[in-house]
Amino acid sequence: MARVLFLFLITAAAFGLVVFTAWHPELWEPWLDAHGITRDDPLFRKGLKLVLAIVLGIPLVALIYAIGRLGSDRPQRDLDGYTVLRLRAGTRWFTTISCLGLAALFFAYPMVDPVAPIPWAFQAAAVFCLLIIPVMLKAKVRYDNSTLSVSNSFGGSSRFRWSELMEVRAVPEMKHYLFVFENGKKASVSYSYAGLDDLLGTAQSKLGAHPGSAGSRRGTTRI
After folding, report:
1. CB–CB of 213/165 below 8 Å?
2. Whole-model pTM?
3. Residue ranges of the alpha helices (H) in 36-163?
4. Beta strand residue intervals within 172-214, DSSP E
5. Does the first or last residue of the chain, that is N or C, have fewer Cβ atoms within 10 Å of its Cβ?
6. Counting beta carbons within 10 angstroms of the beta carbon of residue 49, is it exposed (0 to 12), middle (13 to 18) or buried (19 or more)?
7. Residues 158-170 as b or e (16 or more Cβ within 10 Å = b)
8. Is the sign of the CA dihedral 109, 115, 119, 122 positive or negative?
9. What is the rounded CA–CA span in Å between residue 199 and residue 204?
10. Helix (H, G, I), strand (E, B) or coil at 191
């Protein structure tokens, strides 16, 4: 929580700096004039985007990631003896609040701008944002010694057998692990699930027990 508060203060300070700079062009316009650069100059626009991406983008992304990591990192057990992983509390509630905010904006925009083209597109986007919420809140990974069940993007779940696991691949650019099974079946598990280390440990042991798996042949699960 302390890290979240620290990053929030950094992000707020960065936003305040950008606002202050925008309200006081006399601080930077003379420098632009001295170098023959105007506000309409493509070089100025590209430079402005780069500065905003660095000053605002980096702390904002770090803040969102820190919020998403809030909550317990322990798996749960259900009444049937399955180990259950759910998205961290920070991820669930940040996504819920963000989707509600976006839905409100999309619903309100056609009313604020009555001449906006294809208003139904904004309403469809708002409905889509609202549909994401129950999917995220219900998302879970459920497994025992023989099977693995992973929620999909449509609110359902896909079931796999550990005996068919071929490889576990880390995909850091997409923030998930990809579980590859026989016959080309795949399951994606987000980094945001609580108790992920236990799941990966189970996958490691299952790969080591299968002589024909990719992980067994290489001695690694690529995670």
Report:
1. yes
2. 0.69
3. 42-52, 58-68, 89-112, 119-138
4. 176-181, 186-190
5. N
6. exposed
7. eebebeebbbbbe
8. negative
9. 9
10. coil
Does the structure show a pLDDT above 60 at 214?
no
pLDDT above 70: percentage of residues in the chain: 89
Which amino acid appears at position 146 of this protein?
Answer: S
Q: How many CB atoms lie within 10 A of CB 172?
A: 8
The CA distance from 103 to 109, in Å, is 10
**Mean pLDDT, the chain, whole residue set:** 82
- For residue 133, give the nearest of 101, 105, 104, 92 by alpha carbon: 92
Q: Which residue has the higher pLDDT, 111 or 10?
A: 10
Q: Is the pLDDT of residue 207 over 80?
A: yes
**Dist CA 70 CA 16 (whole Å):** 26
Task: Return the CA Rg of the chain.
Answer: 23
Other residues' Cβ atoms within 10 Å of the Cβ of residue 124: 12
Residue 34 DSSP symbol? H
pLDDT digits (tens, 9 = 90+) for 104-146: 888 887 777 777 778 788 889 999 999 999 998 999 999 999 9
The Cα–Cα gap between 221 and 203 comes to 8
Sheet harboring 83-86: ordered strands across? 76-77, 83-86, 140-143, 147-151, 157-161
- To which residue do tokens 């010694």 refer? 145
Can you read off the two tokens belonging to residue 177? 């692990």
